[in-house]
Specification:
35% of the residues lie in helices and 17% in strands. The protein has 395 residues and is an alpha/beta fold.
Length: 395
């Protein structure tokens, strides 16, 4: 696996695919600069080595050239994060991009305009990739969030750098962290899978059953399992057509000696609202008109014991509707358990949009071993898929 350490960037122009698809408010101010901050290490390393940096990214889903999706809106924030003036090219191809790249001096940073202003980017067009490739000397992929897409700038471009391509610091760390959980883990290994649907996690479950000792199932998925086992779930969310699948997962887990932990009690509400009436009930005895919206105290105590004995922990998905304050306790407590286990020496990897949002919201981000930046890409890796953006660098 080639990384920045395998190259001398002195006098070279590094063409870096970053993921600067950041949220903007109505005045085009960046509201969360996490993704820009995540790329800083790679950029700083190359500049310190005497190179210059050309940044490529997309922003949003533009239909043609739309100013609201222009990357010029993030130049100021990027300059602030990097602590240096960032030049901007108002196009990512053609004479404008070529001149801006040509004029770039060692120690300088150039940000190209939104790649998705051209349909050739998402189409994986080879001509477009070749044009982008002509701007730099070494190609660096540091965009885990788009590594599962075979786009021109994430995958196709790599073929024009047969001996001059590598992973950036962020992407290398993502791969290493996932490898540590999936293939090089210290036992016991626990996977916590939450969220609303079994169907969205089925391939993940199937792929990691051979790699874990414990699996905690929480969130809305719980009720498909509970109903399949004959429990009464009231008005709780449930995928009725996935009950057989839930039973098959339980059978497979038993066969592979994996202990499955499902909530035994829940915080039930008489409406899907933060202001609803609530009560703690047995997960198999939820009354009609009520729905489970968070894990209950007995469940959390069970989960705490498992987490505290674990040496490797993967967390993907919340235990309840944490966006509502009255149903956030389960997710917060789970985060606290994982943080405590991490402090005791366990390796913890958090990934998937909702889990990442939760650890950030509740101030737990710095207490985890690694928090992934790529939702869809991480899920595909957990499913055992080879990501095109990663394969392109390894080939």
């Amino acid at each position: 696996m080639k990384t920045l350490q395998d190259f001398n960037f002195k006098g070279k122009k590094a063409l870096i695919r970053v993921d600067f698809n950041v949220p903007l408010d109505e005045n085009f101010n960046v509201t969360d600069a996490t993704r820009i901050e995540a790329a800083k290490s790679t950029i700083d390393t190359i500049l310190a080595d005497g190179g210059s940096v050309i940044l490529m990214s997309h922003l949003g889903r533009p239909k043609g050239k739309e100013d609201k999706y222009s990357l010029r809106h993030i130049v100021e924030k990027t300059s602030e994060v990097l602590g240096r003036n960032v030049h901007f090219a108002s196009d990512c191809r053609g004479d404008i991009a070529a001149k801006a790249a040509r004029d770039l001096k060692p120690g300088e940073v150039l940000l190209l305009e939104n790649l998705r202003f051209y349909p050739e980017e998402e189409a994986g067009d080879e001509g477009f990739a070749k044009e982008l490739a002509s701007l730099g000397d070494i190609y660096v992929n540091d965009a885990f969030g788009t590594a599962h897409r075979a786009h021109a700038s994430t995958t196709i471009i790599a073929k024009f750098f047969p001996n001059a391509k590598c992973f950036g610091t962020l992407l290398a760390k993502e791969i290493e962290s996932l490898e540590r959980v999936l293939n090089n883990s210290v036992k016991p290994v626990t996977a916590v899978l939450g969220g609303s649907k079994v169907s969205s996690k089925i391939t993940v479950i199937e792929n990691i059953l051979d790699k874990v000792d414990h699996m905690i199932i929480g969130g809305g998925m719980t009720f498909t399992f509970v109903k399949a086992l004959g429990g009464k779930i009231g008005d709780s969310i449930c995928e009725d057509d996935k009950q057989e699948l839930a039973l098959e997962i339980l059978r497979l887990a038993k066969e592979k000696n994996v202990q499955i932990h499902i909530p035994v009690d829940v915080v039930a509400a008489d409406a899907f609202s933060n202001n609803a009436n609530t009560k703690i009930v047995d997960v198999r005895e939820i009354p009609d008109g009520w729905q489970g919206l968070d894990a209950g105290p007995k469940s959390l105590e069970n989960f705490r014991k498992v987490i505290m004995e674990s040496k490797t922990i993967l967390w993907n998905g919340p235990l309840g509707v944490f966006e509502m304050e009255n149903f956030a306790n389960g997710t917060i407590e789970l985060g606290n358990y994982i943080a405590a286990s991490t402090a005791n020496g366990a390796f913890s990897l958090v990934g998937g949009g909702d889990s990442v949002a939760a650890v950030k919201q509740f101030g737990l981000e710095d207490k985890m071993s690694y928090v992934s930046t790529g939702g869809g890409a991480m899920l595909e890796m957990l499913e055992g898929q080879t990501l095109p953006g990663i394969a392109a660098i390894l080939s």
